[in-house]
Amino acid sequence: MADLAPVERIKAESRGLRGTLAHSVADRATGALAEDDAQLLRLHGSYQQDDRDIRDERRLQKLEPLWRFMVRLRLPGGVCSAAQWLAIDDIARRYANGSLRLTTRQTFQFHGIAKGDLKTTMAALNAALIDTIATCGDVNRNVIASSNPVESPAHAEVADWARRLSEHLLPKTRAYHEIWLDGEKLEGPAEAEPVYGASYLPRKFKAAIAVPPCNDVDVFAHDLGFIAIVEDGRLAGFNLTVGGGLGATHGDPKTFPRLADLAGFLPPESLLAVAEAVVTTQRDFGDRTNRKHARLKYTIADRGLAWFVGEVERRAGIRLGPPRPYAFTSNGDRFGWQQALDGRWHRTLRIPAGRIADSFDRPWLSGLREIARVHRGDFRITANQNATIAGVEGGARAAIDELIGRYRLDAVERAGPLRRDALACVALPTCPLAMAEAERYLPQLLGRVEGLLEAHGLAGLPLSLRVTGCPNGCARPYLAEIGLIGKAPGRYNLQLGGDARGERLNVLYAENLDEPQLLSALAPLIAAYAAERGPDERFGDFLWRSRRIGAPAAAGAAVKAAT
Asked: Is the peptide bond before 65 cis (omega within 30 degrees of 0)?
């Protein structure tokens, strides 16, 4: 039998994710954690990072890297009360780098927290009834769900199922409460983990719930997905999807992005049992020897969908029905005011790359704090890095509009659909995996592409563009009409041909391009699109129809549509 990956030993010997993490956090001789504890920290919702912009400078000064920590919150379905927003804002100002980041997993990340402030941060979150349990690492992470809040009874039910699924798949260990909240110390063996076992999952695991016709969570990009089937105004059940995942490794053809398979239909009351069966099947059959081959998508690609569905049905004790019809029409957010069936209003704000900070012309951190002080509803973080002010009574709209205008929170929405829908991961300077810029490069990149579109009279047309600093896929670039994936400083692979519904992977068009080469590659394609496109035809669809891009990428590229 092949040797297990090193992290498998760390998890198995950790006594329920404890390890020596408490000692490492208390050690003031260094700003870092012990190596094994840095791995365990991920399952507590935090990553150890350093500022790569000053890494060389500190090395020359014979100083250790400027170690800091990213902390990610657990917010099932992205729901956050106004009081919680104010608490999160306070933590960002006091302990982090003075900014908030909204992620594609519908939650907040803090960046720049010093080790000495980690416990204080966790305690402040706990006081606001928020935790970070299992938002990173080899467990099921924050469960995301279509974020049009209380648009219908079905949306409210789906939000509740996201919460219940998140709670059901939480680790049972009390290590988090012991280490961060000074809870009672465990004596003896670690708590039993009936879902995860002593070694947890072979790799990270992501779950999403979508409500057609909007696929704003990109449900097919996830290990586990549920597509809500609404019939006669009620939630009839879910179509199950399994085996999605977008991470890959440059130069390794054995790794690839994959869209999930449609596995069958289940009634609502079976959701938790089926989800647990999917997780435990991956726990027992996922590859623990090679982390590049450890996601559920490879388990299904190797063993086949029929085998996997049979195993899930056996464990869950149910028989899946045939998938029921559904249709997605978009995978973006809707901006401006939208009224729900209950008469309340919701206002989604565009937050480029999810970064909320105060700058001279965009004092957005302060603006959203002021809104949270007067808002009587809640907030919803979207899977597209935006924020929704939800549950606003009609008479309160004017006050919120005044604050939106005063703090220029609607500035980007007026700039056009390209900027409205673009996504980017954090990348440099904090992400250790980043090979190129993403968030910091996005404004410049958008300006360049806007110039190409304007030159051909296309400035007002929608176009999805996503950029990441590495092939890990955090901003879901493999689903974009134009995807840029970092290869080296200033260089990217160009992926083309995703659709506007999250149902088609794009394909590699050209490798290792700098900015002039990127623009040179895009210019003739955009020119052809302007001259030859059909009525309402999207750029990605045009590229396929006109055969300007090649065959679909790798296994799992085609999604089996329900009919």
From this structure: no
Q: How many residues does the chain have?
A: 563
222 contacts 559 by C-beta, under 8 angstroms: no
Active site residue 214: no
355 is catalytic: no
Distance, C-alpha 100 to centroid of its chain: 15
Q: Tell me, yes or no, if 204 is annotated catalytic.
A: yes
Q: Give the pLDDT confidence of 84-108 residue by residue, as tens digits.
A: 999 999 999 999 999 999 999 999 9
**Burial class (CB within 10 angstroms; exposed 0-12, middle 13-18, buried 19+) of 476:** buried
Note if 72 is an active site residue.
yes
Q: What is the pLDDT of residue 555?
A: 30
pLDDT score at 350: 96
Q: Cβ contacts of residue 374 below 8 Å, gap of 6+? A: 396, 399, 400, 403
Query: Is residue 431 among the annotated active site residues?
Result: yes
φ, ψ dihedrals at 419, nearest 5°? -70, -30
Strands 355-356 and 378-381: unpaired
Choose, from 72, 74, 369, 476, the residue flagged as catalytic: 72
Pick from 151-155, 366-370, 456-460, 492-496: least confident: 151-155
* Chain position carrying tokens 């220029």: 408
Alpha carbon dihedral 351, 355, 360, 366, in 10-degree steps, equals: 80
Which has the closest alpha carbon to 240: 221, 260, 214? Answer: 260
What pLDDT sits at residue 207? Answer: 98
Q: Give the residue from 222, 71, 200 showing the smallest Cα distance to 144.
A: 222
Q: Any catalytic annotation for residue 487? A: no
**Sign of the torsion formed by the C-alpha atoms of 479, 482, 486 and 488:** positive
| DSSP-assigned beta bridge partners for residue 230 | 235
pLDDT-above-70 percentage for the chain: 97
* Residue with token string 């009874």: 153
